[in-house]
Design goal:
Layout: E1 25-34, E2 37-47, E3 52-57, H1 63-70, E4 78-83, E5 86-87, E6 90-93, E7 96-99, H2 102-109, E8 112-115, H3 127-137, H4 143-156, H5 172-184, E9 190-194, H6 202-218, E10 222-226, H7 230-236, E11 239-244, E12 247-252, H8 254-259, H9 264-274
Parallel strand pairs: 3-10, 3-11, 8-9, 9-10
Antiparallel strand pairs: 1-2, 1-4, 4-5, 6-7, 11-12
Helix pairs in contact: 3-4, 3-5, 4-5, 5-6
The protein binds adenosine-5'-triphosphate and magnesium ion (MG).
Length: 276
Amino acid sequence: MEHSVPRTIDVTAPPEPPALQAPGLSIRDLHKSFGDNHVLRGVSLDIPAGQKVAFIGRSGSGKTTLLRLVMTLEQPDSGLIEVGGVPLGVRRVGDAYVPDSRRHVNEVRRNIGMVFQHFNLFPHKTAAQNVMEAPMKVLKQSKDEARAGAVALLEKVGLGHKVDEHPSRLSGGQQQRVAIARALAMKPQIMLFDEVTSALDPEMVGEVLNVIRDIAQETSMTMLLVTHEMRFARDVANRVIYMEDGVIAEDSPPDVIFENPTNPSTRNFLRAVLSP
Ligand SMILES: Nc1ncnc2c1ncn2[C@@H]1O[C@H](COP(=O)(O)OP(=O)(O)OP(=O)(O)O)[C@@H](O)[C@H]1O
Ligand SMILES: [Mg+2]
């Protein structure tokens, strides 16, 4: 039987549909104050789908505030955040933006997962039950389906042997890995990590960073990682953003920022944090 297999690849063929691509993030001139403390002073940035971006900078430079705005835990004073082209928290009416319905905000936000410095697992639930909670409630998964997903994720973060333990019987690093599994269980396309290791004892930092590194390498999720671990930033990120006083002071590939930063203030910051 004859096969009509084309012998050349048609380079004009349309690219694969982007349906499986994680959505990117677009941030336009974001401002946020707390009282008279002008914390974010015009942050603009485009993060293409799948990119892994590390945020570094001094304490108080606005890194957490930026992530909390993306997570809709805070509202911007002005500026716009778009997730995969969809405005977050607002909806366009004519030339203006008006507050979006709670329901639609939640739908857009469902694409985004966050892991914080201080993981707050439910103490009375096991590791698996912590991971199963949101998929059952929000994604309406059956108990069996949610349990199977939770076990797979806990195995992925190296906790296959701790599935039915309560948090009080887990180390800090193990608890943080449950928190990562819990965030992944919602199948987010964008993940935000805010200094996930800074509350941990030093010997547990490595196991958590390794899990995040593996996730970064294996998935097409868009990832924003705030970290004080410069080696980790260098290993995991495609791009490093140095924030200073509420603005992006430098936005460079890891090799550039760590070898030869373009902004002298990046250099000063790195010299201070990297010097023994
Ligand atoms: N909810 C809030 N109410 C009042 N001020 C706040 C609030 N959240 C943050 N701030 C202030 O905003 C500024 C930026 O804080 P933010 O937490 O974004 O900094 P950061 O870059 O994450 O710092 P760190 O590296 O210490 O985590 C700080 O001056 C902080 O005190
Ligand atoms: Mg912070």
